[in-house]
Design brief:
The chain is α+β, with helices and mostly antiparallel strands and 281 residues long. The chain has helices spanning 25-38, 50-59, 141-146, 150-156, 216-230, and strands at residues 2-5, 12-15, 40-43, 86-89, 92-93, 96-97, 106-109, 121-128, 136-140, 160-164, 184-188, 190-192, 199-201, 208-211, 236-239, 246-250, 254-258, 268-274. The protein has 2 domains: 2-103 and 118-139 and 236-274, Double-stranded beta-helix (4-Layer Sandwich), CATH 3.60.130; 141-230, no CATH class. A hairpin with a 6-residue loop joins strand 1 and strand 2.
């Protein structure tokens, strides 16, 4: 096994591993160490079935099986393997989407930040990739937190924010609507990673809607300032997809987005999740 860092902001490519085979304990320990150090790990040239991908998730902490509430489910793959496998694709069958998040840009977000227990990790396997565009962007939220001034770090102590998901890909959530039937949860603005013990900003422009306890003007101003750190070039890196790529990202310390890509070209990623544990400040 060889581990090669991909950027100063994070990410590492791991070679010499065939994920279609059951990993040994030593390999799992080394991959887990790289995952915690770099936040994103990439395996190229993999030939993986659904079951291979689920086995990898099981070995890396356990496949997440928590589905969305029935009233919020759509025909986008939630029923596949009991909701554990989801297709991120623009492919349709007679006009019916075979997945979701089909086309266009997607803003930075943490998968599952709208849940009481966010996912530990997202695992994406590329089945089809476009000729250009469609890169996944990552922002290292350890680094974002480290770049805050001491005064801002003190200000954020004890503050919590509402995270909400209403199936948008871009744009802030409309808080004038009834959110009782939309997935949402309140988490600290700064969390301590349950495995590494490091502090990370836990916000995203797509899903963090307001800071609890502040008036709307104060909340919007504080979030706007914090979102600048998510978009700081020094904390960002990206992955250009090829079929056979498997990417695993840490949802506690990494937020991710997607660049636009050419219309009419097929793009399909198979997504599974690793179960999380409670997070706290």
């Amino acid at each position: 096994m060889n581990i090669r860092p991909l950027s100063t902001a994070g990410g590492a490519e791991i070679t010499g591993v065939d994920l279609s085979e059951t990993l040994g304990k030593d390999d799992i320990a080394e991959i887990t160490r790289a995952f915690h150090e770099f936040g994103v790990i990439v395996f190229r040239n993999q030939d993986l079935s659904d079951q291979d991908q689920l086995r990898f998730c099981d070995q890396m902490g356990g496949t997440a099986t928590r589905g969305r509430p029935l009233e919020q489910r759509r025909d986008d793959g939630d029923s596949h393997y009991g909701g554990t496998v989801h297709m991120v694709t623009n492919v349709t069958n007679d006009g019916t989407p075979l997945g979701s998040f089909g086309d266009g840009e997607v803003w930075f977000h943490h998968d599952g930040s709208f849940k009481e227990i966010p996912y530990a990790a997202t695992v994406l396997y590329a089945i089809e990739a476009t000729s250009s565009g469609g890169e996944t962007l990552f922002a290292n939220m350890y680094a974002a937190y480290d770049r805050l001034s001491p005064e801002m770090k003190n200000r954020l102590e004890g503050l919590r924010a509402l995270n909400i998901y209403d199936y948008a890909r871009t744009g802030r959530v409309d808080l004038d609507q009834d959110i009782s039937k939309i997935n949402h949860w309140i988490h600290p603005l700064v969390i301590r990673h349950p495995d590494t013990g490091r502090k990370a900003l836990f916000i995203s422009p797509l899903m963090t809607a307001r800071v609890e306890g502040l008036n709307p003007g104060e909340s919007n101003a504080l979030l706007a300032e914090l979102f600048r750190y998510v978009d700081d070039e020094d904390v960002k890196f990206e992955h250009s997809w090829r079929p056979g790529d498997l990417v695993m990202l840490d949802n506690r310390c990494i937020t991710h987005a997607r660049r636009d890509f050419p219309g009419g070209e097929r793009r399909t990623l198979r997504r599974t999740m690793v179960e999380g544990v409670p997070i706290s400040a």
